[in-house]
Known about the structure:
Elements: H1 2-12, H2 19-33, E1 34-36, H3 38-45, H4 59-64, E2 74-76, H5 78-91
Amino acid sequence: MKKKLTDVYNSLDLNGLTDEQKVRKIHDYVCLHADYDYATYYRNKAGKIIDYSIDNYSSYDILFDPVDPYTGSTKVVCTGFTGLFYRLAQKAGLEVL
């Protein structure tokens, strides 16, 4: 996962940007490469046990799951979005909590 994360980070070309510009670029990358997974959300809301083979909860899913040929993105719930943003922001030297 570290290599793929580094490859994504390098593709963003954040050198010389302000912190605000870095945040926007990371945000845009995450939003372009992920769509909200309503199926996982509704399974969770219905009380189903999490099944990581079909439920998309992590930044790993954005980086490694097959891309939808129509949208060009993968599906995750909010933890996938935030997890990838957090990891990329950390690599960019941004203060993230």
